[in-house]
Amino acid sequence: MSRPLPDPAQYSTQLEAKRQRLVELLAPFAAPAPDVFDSPSEHYRLRAEFRLWREAEQRHYAMFEQGDKHSPVLIEDFPIASARINQLMPQLKAAWQASAALSFKLFQVEFLTTLAGDALVTLCYHRPIDGAWQAEAEQLARALGVSVIGRSRGKRIVIGRDHVLEALQVAGRAFRYRQPEGAFTQPNGVVCQKMLQWAFDALGERDDDLLELYCGNGNFTLPLATQVRRVLATEISKTSVNAALANLADNGIDNVELVRLSAEELTQALNGVRPFRRLAHTDLAGYDFGTVFVDPPRAGMDADTCELVRRFERILYISCNPETLAANIAQLHDSHRIERCALFDQFPWTRHMESGVLLVRR
Fold it and tell me: According to its UniProt record, which residues of this chain constitute the active site (predicted)?
């Protein structure tokens, strides 16, 4: 079956409910009215993951209600996913149905696509994958025009690339990104561009330096680096660090120093709690930080990191959880006020939303 979208006419209603929720959460801090950035109502999600369910001797794409792993909803297409994913779904299904090497003990399929049209398919198995599998997968990759990754316990075979290539437009410039399989990327590319542009404008052109925490693959780092003198960026994931370094090189951006540290570790370093070998060649005192940019996980910033960012004149904060955003602002409100805020509808038809604030010292 196809899983239909809600009535598109209801999209503006659910977006308005999110706006009101954000306004209520930020009301105690005298926030200005948020800028609201909408999403396409369909074909907006660039990645998708499906379990497979065996029925009538065939494997089908399946999804489950939260908490119920025994009552699958079998699907043929997925309207919220990108047009490229919906194009690939039946083609991939036909391929595994025609090939025992591809279908035997296949239990999960993951798609990763881009606005630029690139695609990567990951096939996950409850068995060892071998040369017979690789030969079939190489034919599949050629036929579909995608990269393919096979995963089984302790083994990963890459056919093509282990990442997709994206291009995002900010301020009239196309920034090119490598987005690795298995690493975090923004799921809604259209809204991601709007987030990047908002952050770019909120930062403005400056003659001082930027500290960025949780930089990931450099999603925000690339455009923001063009607005400041220098950037010190931190990220803990090795995969994301390697992707960020490649993205900086691919875009010819040379004013960023990237250090593999968590936000908590950087806080300890700046507070002189303990030294880190990864900072041995970094002259922290040589930076003139005017702004700190943070895009933390859903849990938000811990109390110590909040106290760290309080030192900065300006705090540019992107959040995927408005409740933890509000909790962090409550800790910072005595020293900083909200100058700008925004709602980004990264996740239509759900309660989830992305938001942003620019906090400026009182």
Answer: 320 (nucleophile), 320, 354 (proton acceptor)
- Has 235 been labeled as part of a binding site? yes
| Same fold flag, 8-41+188-361 and 47-164 | no
Take residue 236 and report the two structure tokens written for it: 């803990």
Residue 320 known to be catalytic: yes
| 3 state SS of 81 | strand
Tell me the CATH number for domain 47-164: 2.40.50.1070
pLDDT at 272: 79
Catalytic residue (choose from 124, 192, 306, 320): 320
φ and ψ of 237, to 5 deg: -75, 125
Please identify every stretch of the chain with a pLDDT value under 70, giving residue numbers as ranges. 1-6
Q: What is the CATH number of domain 8-41+188-361?
A: 3.40.50.150
DSSP class of residue 163? E
Phi/psi of residue 4, nearest 5 degrees: -70, 155
- Model's pTM, two decimal places? 0.93
| Residue 344, token pair as written in the block | 């980004």
Q: What was the pLDDT predicted at 5?
A: 61
Amino acid 162: pLDDT:
96
